[in-house]
Amino acid sequence: MVKKIVIVGGGIAGIYVLRSLLARKSDVEAEMDFTVLKREKSGWVSTCGLPFALRGWYEIERTEINKPQFFLDQGVDFRTETEVTKLNLEQNSVTLKTGETLKYDFLVIATGRKQFVKETELEGVYTFNDEDDARKIEAALNVEGVKDAYIRGRGIIGLQAAAAFSTRGLETTVHGGSPSLLPSSLDPDMGDMVKERMEKDGVRFILDSREITAIKGHEGRAKSVVIGEREVEKEEIPADIVIIGKWMIPEIDLAWEAGVDIGESRGIVTDRAMHVKKGKRHITNVYAVGDCAEVVDAITHRPRLNQLASTAVTQATVIADNILSDISGQPGLYSPCEYCFGPTVADVGGVLIGSVGVTSEAASRAGIKTISGKATKLTKARYFPGATPLTLKLIFDAYSKKLIGAQMVGEVTVAERVNELGVAIRAGITAEEMRSMERCYDPSLALLVDVTIDAATDALGITPVY
User: Fold this and answer.
1) Which residues of 321-342 are buried (b: 16+ CB within 10 A; e: fewer)?
2) d(Cα 119, Cα 282) in Å, to the nearest integer?
């Protein structure tokens, strides 16, 4: 019997469920029929690559990894520019805007995220969510006379957009809340390092609680942004291009209207198999994945969002395992989703940032007392070309001394360290163990005493040996 699998959403979350199932079709005897429904006209696009396209590193078109025809050639009913208007969970079907109804045996909700932005008729005001946004922004950058940019948002998207604009010669202002940048990933002392580096590249920062009160235009195009409500706090900022990179929320409308439970983070509630919940029961043939789904933090054990591609891929693997388990009747294929450690890396104008686990603020909100240590060292011997500094901050549970968070800012070797320290958090490594741990050494590749050892030593209140 043919099993019909419908995936609503064609971003990285939905695509990876599809790819995982296509790669493992031979694991089950039953035939699988795949339908992907997405509003955009593209195939699989690497949205994480779009900011670098705006920096001029490559054309936006290169971020489309697979065109729709790639999936059509594999027998997938891959429908672009298609809008789903209703999920009928009791009837195991979805309804399209055209009125067509599609039946399913398994449904995957991969609707992603959206931004809450007030509508404006002015040209030059954009969100930055997908390739369509990137094309509009690129076109705006090429308009004659464009010289000022304003970005609302202090997260990765906003900062990468700022780096792109600054690189292209625009006077760029980033406006976000206080006290520092990237608050979900970095403590203020680490966020300030990113800010100082970007300020050297000409980016201006406003970090306060003022909101946009007006966007002024001339001849249909944006010319400035007014922030602040009271007259004494109002400020008008020149802006030929306005990017709204804030207010990113899960796209849950279809799920909510179908009665699916929504969590305190405003994401879709799932169990560890990624089944959605409706009322008192989980629906075992309906899954949610990616930016629209709520996760459970591995350190605080509280629900939160973690809208990262790496999280979506992990969840997609779990969903594929469990669909195949149900189809084959082999419980051994069943797979639970691990709690979320949130490893994050980003290149922000040549500044590399990384984090994993909790920040000091997140730990405090969860009632976890912490100690922390910080160190700055070169990544290789000082006499070798390319020896650059890396600042590392480690956060430990004050009682057990177990590592629960790590943050770093540098120019090289960030991603590798994030993965290493993520494993250390998962393994429950303590500050004492990290201080005493052997590390590899070669002057062309690493220091004799690594920055990790110095940061752990600092957390213990011991003077490091330099």
Assistant:
1) bbbbbbbeeeeebebebeebbb
2) 37
In order along its 466 residues, the chain shows pLDDT tens digits of 789 999 999 999 999 999 999 998 888 888 899 999 999 999 999 999 999 999 989 999 999 999 999 999 999 999 999 999 999 999 999 999 999 999 999 999 999 988 766 667 788 999 888 888 999 999 999 888 899 999 999 999 899 999 999 999 999 999 999 899 999 999 999 999 999 999 999 999 999 999 999 999 988 899 999 999 888 889 999 999 999 876 678 999 999 999 999 999 999 999 999 999 998 899 999 999 999 999 999 999 999 998 888 999 999 999 999 999 988 887 766 788 889 999 999 999 899 999 999 999 999 999 999 999 999 999 988 888 888 999 999 999 999 999 999 999 999 889 999 999 999 999 999 999 999 999 999 988 888 999 999 999 999 998 877 6
Q: What is the pTM of this model?
A: 0.91
Which domains does the chain carry?
Answer: 3-114+249-333 (3.50.50.60), 117-246 (3.50.50.60), 344-459 (3.30.390.30)
Length of the chain counted residue by residue: 466
